[in-house]
From TrEMBL:
Residues 16-134 form the RCK N-terminal domain. This is TrkA family potassium uptake protein. Pfam families: TrkA_C, TrkA_N. It comes from Nostoc favosum CHAB5714. Gene3D superfamilies: NAD(P)-binding Rossmann-like Domain, Regulator of K+ conductance, C-terminal domain. PROSITE patterns: RCK_C, RCK_N. Signal peptide: none annotated. InterPro entries: NAD(P)-bd_dom_sf (IPR036291), RCK_C (IPR006037), RCK_C_sf (IPR036721), RCK_N (IPR003148), Trk_Ktr_HKT_K-transport (IPR050721). It comes from the Bacteria. Transmembrane segments: none annotated. Residues 152-231 form the RCK C-terminal domain. SUPFAM superfamilies: NAD(P)-binding Rossmann-fold domains, TrkA C-terminal domain-like.
Length: 231
């Protein structure tokens, strides 16, 4: 997760109980079904009447309407502009997705999340004012590649494209050594933030602390240096 994402998520009011989802493709349906399961009110719209009635039949939405979201008048009449958070879940129709996002921002919707289906689409959505853009194909693909190539990394927080905070399994090479002995800063350019044992974290551990196989450590540094860590 990036810092910009975190600040966006923080800005979404915790009291918000209602969401509007535009587009009932696979992505939109998944968003609706999950929000509903979590107990939130969901108003969904789609230009396709069949998608609207299927969503109502499957009860993945509280309300659903058939409308063309490129039409500001239709959105206004449906009350979409009154929502705090709107998810534009139109990935494959770039023009419709851009116009819909623009409609939301021009009407003053505070939090607009939009789904991109390509890099250009991603850039355009940011340009027209989307507050948060997701690009599932890219994000899931990247996460899979990282998991396959760096299985020792348990969790990561991307500070920016080059620097991260990662939780990783203590490498075998570090087993039984103290923090001073592993020379993380000198050898790898990384700083140790915490060590964990039995799910309990010890922040800023003592330099004499001995690392153990099977436990975890949290480091901060640049991605290139993190990838040089022994596995
Ligand atoms: P997929 O379902 O293939 O994974 P997706 O979730 O990104 O992809 P899309 O194919 O982009 O979904 O379609 C999302 C939905 O948006 C479709 O059901 C489509 O009918 C709807 N849609 C397209 N244009 C409009 C529009 N102008 N107004 C409202 N809904 C629209």
């Amino acid at each position: 997760m990036k810092l910009a994402t975190l600040s966006f998520l923080r800005s979404v009011s915790k009291d918000n109980q209602q969401f509007a989802v535009i587009g009932l493709g696979r992505f939109g349906r998944s968003v609706c079904a999950t929000l509903r399961k979590l107990g939130y009110q969901v108003l969904a719209t789609d230009i396709d009447a069949k998608q609207v009635s299927a969503a109502l039949t499957k009860e993945i939405v509280s309300h659903a309407l058939q409308l063309d979201s490129t039409e500001p008048a239709a959105l206004k009449e449906a009350g979409i502009f009154g929502f705090d958070t709107v998810i534009v879940a139109i990935g494959n129709y770039v023009q419709e997705s851009i116009i819909t996002t623009l409609n939301m921002k021009e009407a003053g919707v505070p939090h607009v999340v939009a789904k991109a289906s390509s890099e250009v689409h991603y850039k355009l959505l940011n340009r027209v004012g989307a507050d948060h853009v997701v690009f599932p194909e890219y994000e899931v693909g990247r996460a899979l590649a990282l998991t396959l190539t760096q299985p020792f990394i348990l969790d990561r927080f991307d500070l920016d494209p080059d620097n991260s905070i990662v939780e990783l399994v203590v490498p075998d090479e570090f087993h039984g050594k103290t923090i001073t002995e592993i020379q993380l800063r000198n050898r790898y350019g990384l700083n140790l933030l915490a060590v964990s044992k039995d799910s309990e974290f010890q922040i800023n551990p003592n330099p004499t602390y001995r690392l153990e196989r099977g436990s975890a450590m949290v480091v901060i540094g640049c991605n290139k240096d993190i990838s040089r860590m022994p596995i």
